[in-house]
Amino acid sequence: MSDIADRVKKIVVEHLGVEAEKVTENANFIDDLGADSLDTVELVMAFEEEFNVEIPDDAAETIQTVGDAIKFLEKNSA
Amino acid sequence: MFALTGRKALVTGATGGLGGAIARAFHAQGADVAISGTRREALDALRAELGGERVHVVEANLADTAAVEGLVPAAEAALGGLDILVNNAGITRDNLFLRMKDEEWDSVIAVNLTAAFRLSRAAVKGMMRRRYGRVVNIGSVVGSTGNAGQGNYAAAKAGLVGLTKALAAEVASRKITVNCIAPGFIASPMTDALNEKQRDGILATVPMGRLGEGAEVAAAAVYLASDEAGYVTGHTLHVNGGMAML
């Protein structure tokens, strides 16, 4: 597992207060992890801070699973 | 009660009568205040009046989109965070509806409504992170009652009420409250300029029989910005001497 994946999962666990084993790459923030739409906005803000990147709104909308976030950040973070 | 000690507040339109009164009241309650407006000299004078401590001047013309975008980051940098946003800045471009120019409509909507939207959007981001925030929008009685010659202004002020309620619903779970104050006729350079007949005409519609004071609106803002008002959100608080009991 990549370092980015670890950091993403850690943020998700902390922010949503879910158990680490539930945070799989296929887990959908809303359907599987109990996030509401505002949580997803906050998660994107947290990713932006952690990885020091800007995630534009149209990209943010495509980030619906843990794996989506990891993929985006692997591609776009320095 | 209602102490704002250590709270960090941005007040737009702070050189106006109401904005100045709100900045003074917040400062007196212990807040760190960033005062914003278009007139540098007036901002500096207000800062000097308040003794310079816990007061930061952040100049911004809210008719300028880039200035609006830069204001919250500038205030956060000056204050070291932002707990309270008061969207007070407003302009009038009165005209009869049938004579109203598109520019008169657009400029009033831009400053009185769109700037409040943009500033709230920017401010609430940090408030969500910190799990605390107060947004106070300064509306007007005419947002509820309408007023001949103020189609643009009344629409913008009514728009603020809807904005207030929608945002309040979205961010309530993050301990952020969003409220509106709707002043009636408040003593200001504008009302000072009225002649006696105009003044009497206005006062005939106010059961209290007098104009309001800026400090009376500021007191409402202090309340809504305080910790004690933590369960009040999406509300419009009317401060109008009874001229419209809504």
Automatic annotation (TrEMBL), chain A:
4'-phosphopantetheine is transferred from CoA to a specific serine of apo-ACP by acpS. InterPro entries: ACP, ACP-like_sf, PP-bd_ACP, Ppantetheine_attach_site. Pfam families: PP-binding. It is found in: Cytoplasm. SUPFAM superfamilies: ACP-like. Keywords: Cytoplasm, Fatty acid biosynthesis, Fatty acid metabolism, Lipid biosynthesis, Lipid metabolism, Phosphopantetheine, Phosphoprotein. Residues 2-77 form the Carrier domain. The keyword Cell wall biogenesis/degradation does not apply. Its main location: cytoplasm. It comes from the Bacteria. Pathway: Lipid metabolism; fatty acid biosynthesis; Glycolipid biosynthesis; KDO(2)-lipid A biosynthesis. Carrier of the growing fatty acid chain in fatty acid biosynthesis. This is Acyl carrier protein. It comes from Methylobacterium isbiliense.
TrEMBL record, chain B:
Keywords: Fatty acid biosynthesis, Fatty acid metabolism, Lipid biosynthesis, Lipid metabolism, NADP, Oxidoreductase. Its EC number is 1.1.1.100. It catalyses: a (3R)-hydroxyacyl-[ACP] + NADP(+) = a 3-oxoacyl-[ACP] + NADPH + H(+). Pathway: Lipid metabolism; fatty acid biosynthesis. The keyword NADP applies. InterPro entries: 3oxo_ACP_reduc, KR_dom, NAD(P)-bd_dom_sf, Sc_DH/Rdtase_CS, SDR, SDR_fam. This is 3-oxoacyl-[acyl-carrier-protein] reductase.
